[in-house]
Amino acid sequence: MPLPLVYVHGFIGHLRFPQLLTGMDPARVLSPDLIGYGAYAGQRPPSIAEQVTHLDGLIRQAFGEQPVVLAGHSGGAPLCIRFAERWPDRVAGLISAEGNLAPSDAFLSSRLAPMGPAQIQAWLDRAQADPGVFLAPEHLRGDPVQLDRVREWLNHQSATAVHAMARALLVETVHPGYATAVSRVMAQTPTYLIQGELSSSALGVPTRLAAMAVETYVMPGVGHLMVLEDPEAFARIVASIVRALEAPVPRDFAIARD
After folding, report:
1. Where are the beta strands (DSSP E) in the chain?
2. What is the arithmetic mean of pLDDT over 251-258?
3. Which of 3, 207, 216, 249 could bridge to 193 as Cys pair (CB 3.0-4.6 Å)?
């Protein structure tokens, strides 16, 4: 039976665009909302640890105890790391799509977290009125389809949720124990990295961590918002990784990575 895939979104939006299912069995893919988003938009996002517990419940409901592949984009990656740390036997593989594996990766969280509630609301209001405001830091003008996806993202949660999650991610990634957790998880769990060609130089994974990855994929012509810019190409990479993980794993995997 194919390994289930769980997409984990960052602090804005979701990962439920139909194109993200390209090459996969939709019944084996879960793209849940975190607390504070979508179906749970009425709740204030808690700590990362509590989000991981929430994620655990949804995964158990969908797939029981079966090992899954976790794919986290941006701020979703820390949740994947902490999940794999708590339940290593339930994670067959980890995919980090320009995930926050180091404090320097949380670039937008670090900018939004110190803001006050009124500032965050004003930022979100401007972005909702003109999605180009959200895309500008990515040097991306956006075609009509991409702009529609951005609008959908920006309306998927409140300013309060954005603020709370940005703060939670920043607290998590700057904690001294987080770097240790990332290294430990990557040493015991097959980890794949996906980067955008246009953002890899600015958001490159630390050399030490890149060396621990099974493989790094660089998507041509896209940046950090790869899941918005070209979700089909992104999904094809993810699907190929899942197929690779379904193949027998060498017995000396952990030894080879130490």
Report:
1. 5-8, 29-30, 68-73, 91-97, 191-196, 215-219
2. 46
3. 216
Taking the CA atoms of the chain, what radius of gyration do you get in angstroms? 17
Cβ neighbours of 256 (radius 10 Å): 8
Q: Helix, strand or coil for residue 96?
A: strand
Distance (Å, whole) CA 236 – CA 49 = 30
**pLDDT tens per residue across span 111-147:** 888 899 999 999 999 999 988 777 876 656 678 898 8
3-class secondary-structure state, position 114 = coil
Q: How many CB atoms lie within 10 A of CB 80?
A: 27
The strand pairing partners of 96, in sequence order, are 72, 193
Full-model pTM: 0.92
173 is written with which tokens?
A: 């990634």
Q: Which residue has the tokens 């976790």?
A: 70
Instruction: Please give the C-alpha separations between residue 220 and each of 28, 66, 98, 198, 251, in angstroms, as whole numbers.
Output: 27, 34, 14, 8, 34
Tell me how far apart the alpha carbons of residues 19 and 31 are, in angstroms, rounded to a whole number.
Answer: 13
CA-to-CA separations, 78 to 66, 96, 170, 174, in angstroms, rounded: 21, 9, 10, 11
If you count them, how many residues does the chain have? Answer: 258
CB 164 within 8 A of CB 75: no
Let me know the angle formed at the C-alpha of 73 by 55 and 77, rounded to the nearest 5 degrees. 55
Task: Please classify residue 63 by burial: count the beta carbons closer than 10 Å to its beta carbon, then call 0-12 exposed, 13-18 middle and 19+ buried.
Answer: middle
